[in-house]
Specification:
This protein is mostly helical. It has helices spanning about 15-20, 30-55, 55-70, 75-80, 85-95, 120-140, 145-165, and strands at about 100-105, 115. Strand 1 and strand 2 form a beta hairpin.
Length: about 170
């Protein structure tokens, strides 16, 4: 199926489309192309990270959640990631078999399970994520206060545009 840009009120420019996808140079002030390329880079990094720690996309989502928020119940994870508890059980089985998580009984409520990322998996993931975090920290540290304020305002508006598109 051919996409018809005129349906979206935009003029099609082949070289710009190629540049957005990372196949050519971007125009100096083409912000939209940079947003798209950033999104594609983020997707590529997530695939790379999933490959490096040997998990699928859903497993990476669970690991990210556990490393960001700490241990959780399978039901809480399923709600957070927006999948069924049955699907979550399958994801957790794969992660546990690979040594990425542990499932233990809750210390005060033996009926509940608590899922946690293993220390080895956390170290492995952070080993791959830390260069990106450090690189981003260096970029932010190099910015003036005015540049950080402008970037924050701009990114807040981009986030709002995404939120608006999902409502």
């Amino acid at each position: 199926m051919d996409v018809k840009p005129e349906l979206f009120g935009t003029e099609y420019n082949a070289s710009r489309a190629i540049a957005r996808r990372g196949g050519g140079p971007m125009a100096e002030r083409d912000v939209r192309a940079r947003i798209q390329r950033l999104g594609l880079k983020e997707q590529a990094f997530r695939r790379h990270l999933a490959d490096q720690i040997a998990v699928d996309e859903m497993g990476l989502e669970v690991m990210d959640n556990l490393m960001s928020r700490g241990s959780s119940s399978p039901t809480e994870l399923a709600h957070e990631i927006n999948i069924s508890t049955a699907a979550m059980s399958l994801v957790l089985q794969r992660l546990e078999s690979a040594g990425h998580i542990t499932r233990q009984r809750h210390p005060s409520d033996g009926r509940r399970l608590v899922v946690a990322a293993t220390d080895d998996s956390v170290r492995l993931a952070y080993g791959h994520v830390l260069p990106l975090v450090n690189g981003l920290e260096a970029v932010v540290a190099s910015m003036s206060e005015a540049e950080r304020a402008a970037a924050s305002d701009f990114l807040d508006k981009v986030i709002a545009a995404y939120d608006g598109a999902m409502n």
